[in-house]
């Protein structure tokens, strides 16, 4: 089953056939993979990890990060973990212990590190057995092949680069075709409009601003409503190598979905295990193999990366970012746009407007762009 016409006139990466309806049914039971990063590793979250989230003060400043109050944020995280555990056990969504008439599926990973950034001989997260937060794929929709991604980090582990390490790897798994991954077509996020740091980070990952929910959130700090910005990334737009490269992270080819992504995007491994692009002038030198300096197989511990990327706790506490990490390139196009107050447009894509698919520039994304609001909307 395929469709053509304005806005959908290019080949689909994931073909659809007579068995498409069956293919769009999520499995009754899922094996949540372990995923390795440089600074941390991700393991399936368990109910006991919820206690660690309280110890980590993970819901501190949730109103500035996600737009939800601390109690509401704690409640949804509790529900997400329980749904994830239920799915991994083959239980129906309604049997997860939390009411869910829509039977939504969710995957939850605990973010675990043994980093010792203050070099006192004790891991930073020793009190929580290495757990520093969680990352989720929420409301996994098999029919639409869509899911929302969110990171929730402990108060004192924000701004250290952990989200930048984890997010591209989870997205790579999500986009990978079954049975390796979930076979998603779209991954999206929702961010309060004042959380400009998160918007910048997501743009560096390849997300595009796709819509705005007007006055959807209450800004308690300023006593007024604020918009919620919806951003998304599609499978045929997302390049995991470039996403890792944007944050100076290494490719770990053993992770689920990486081998398929390398082939899909035309990357090749050289004799030394390095990864290079197939297009002239394109280089993935910053996306080296996991055996490069600082990678998981390196003699240099990953903690060194955590230490070098750390900010002080005061900045981390007050920083408003859903992924809790800002881009380390203050002069980048995204950051300059944020600092100057320029309006985001459909061309604000991390890899340049020339590379974004024209089919994605639907009328609802571009309507009004280029108009001068101060001049009555005229160009």
From TrEMBL:
UniProt biased composition (Basic and acidic residues): 297-317, 369-379
A Pfam family that the UniProt record links to this protein: Acetyltransf_3
Bias kind Polar residues: ranges: 1-15
Region (Disordered): 1-26, 272-379
Domain (N-acetyltransferase) ranges: 40-207
PANTHER family: SPERMIDINE N(1)-ACETYLTRANSFERASE
Protein name: GNAT family N-acetyltransferase
